[in-house]
Amino acid sequence: MTQTVELPLWLFLLILVFAAVTLASHFLFPSVRWFFRRRLERAVKRLNTRLQRPIQPFKLARRHDMIQRLIYDPQVGQAVQQHAREEGIPEAVAFEQAQRYAREIVPSFSAVAYFSIAIRLARILSNAFYDVRLSYQDEDALKDIDPNATVVFVMNHRSNMDYVLVTYLAAQQSALSYAVGEWARVWPLSRLIRAMGAYFIRRKSGSELYRQVLACYVRHATDAGVTQAMFPEGGLSLTGAMARPKLGLLKYIIDGARVDGADVVFVPVALNYDRVLEDTILTKAALGNQRQFRARIGVITGWILKQIGRRLTGRYQRFGFAGVRYGHPISLKEFRTAHDDVMTDLARELMQRIKEAIPQAPVPAACWLVRTKGEMPEDELKSLITGFLQRDGTLGDQDESAVSAALDQLVERRILKREGGKISQSGQRVDLLDYYAASAPIGDGWPDAAAAKEVSAGAGS
Questions:
Q1: Distance CA 439, CA 237 (A)
Q2: CA 447 to chain centre
Q3: DSSP string, 282-303
């Protein structure tokens, strides 16, 4: 036992590595995880005292535990058996497929990443790009929502900035859980998005097994009271007008709400912009009759570098207004008592309330007026736009210069032209003129409302 044993140096180093790994895995890592877990729990507890809707324990659960809970759910178990029978494969193989789907869907929320990084970055980006305007149709109704209810923000989808803008504006309410599409499943973007609590969905998956796994996750999140955010249109608007809603995710939320459980309250959120960052890409995609579009990384990088260059040379200007308005909320329990076809009727009602809540913005107003009324004296056009915005509550008396800035932006982009004190169509960027005209919210304060509807219908077709 006391004899000396000679070992090659490489073997001795290998033994040291294994010993170090064993020590860390059995003694150090559990202690370190417990230490940081305790600190995180205390930090979240303090954070919840400041939030209107505290972060639910479900959202803070370990990702591995959430995946296990999902794949062993009876709903998924039945779907696995059904899939195995239909495909003629062993249940073990079908179970592995369900497990892959669960790993793909389930997020790994980090309160530190969300509130220390994402919220601050969202605030910086939102205010760097836009003059952000927040308003309410009924602020008291939002404050009176049952604190035990599950809140779902339902939004029109104009730009990828929607995620950034709403995350920033909802920072004092809760941590939002978004449903994001395939565009975000790119490393390292996917890791960041998972850490922010978003979950991935395949919008065109034909697999019933996948749909059952996704439905099960949404049911668990809804039942646990997780605050969610969804875009019922399923993708960015290519025309500026609102598209027809997709019912899949809404169905999962409705099915996941127990009749005898806590209420689910849907909050319509309407967004409008003076400048949609992807407008040129979207209008080009619309010509191809496809909702999907692809922006090359080189184009995006070049655009970012261009904005940085403008900032450094003092020529940078923000892109105008970004308006966000909360509409009248809808209680699912109350809605169920008054409707037979809950899903279809609720989708229609939500889209209608979003449409009614869309805030006015100078650029869409200018495009719609010139599109429908033709050439106008610039002073008259400014007066009309200012009146609409003030009536809507978007524009204050001290902000009338924003209307001039909006017209300057349209002229600079060759969407409109200025000649002899008059503003008219330039004839060069008709696609963008129609795009922004279709996004103008038409209400009683607008002249020629029938003509406005024709513009929106033409853009939507």
A1: 10
A2: 33
A3: HHHHHHTT-S-----HHHHHHH
Q: Hey, is 178 helix, strand or coil? A: strand
Beta-carbon-side half-sphere exposure of residue 318 (alpha carbons within 13 Å)? 15
What pLDDT, on the 0 to 100 scale, is given for residue 199? Answer: 84
Sign of CA dihedral 309, 311, 315, 317: positive
* Structure confidence at residue 55 (pLDDT): 72
In this prediction, residue 461 has a pLDDT band, given cuts at 50, 70 and 90, of very low
CB atoms within 10 A of CB 82: 14
> CA distances (Å), 290 to each of 108, 160, 283, 379, in order?
32, 17, 10, 39
Beta bridge partners of 326: 136, 269
98: which 2 tokens?
Answer: 């369900």
H and E: helices and strands count for the chain: 22, 11
The partner residues of 50 in beta bridges, in order of sequence, read none
CA 329 to the chain's CA centroid:
18
Helices within 202-274 (DSSP H only)? 208-223, 248-256
Place 74 in a pLDDT band, splitting at 50, 70 and 90: very high
In the numeric block, the tokens 């200018």 are attached to 366
**Count of residues making up the chain:** 461
CA distance 243 to 286: 12
DSSP output for 349-394: HHHHHHHHHPPP-HHHHHHHHHHHH-SEEHHHHHHHHHHHHHHHTS
Model confidence, pTM? 0.82
The pair of structure tokens assigned to 33 is 């995880």
pLDDT at 295 over 60: no
Q: With contact defined as beta carbons under 8 Å apart, do 213 and 136 qualify?
A: no
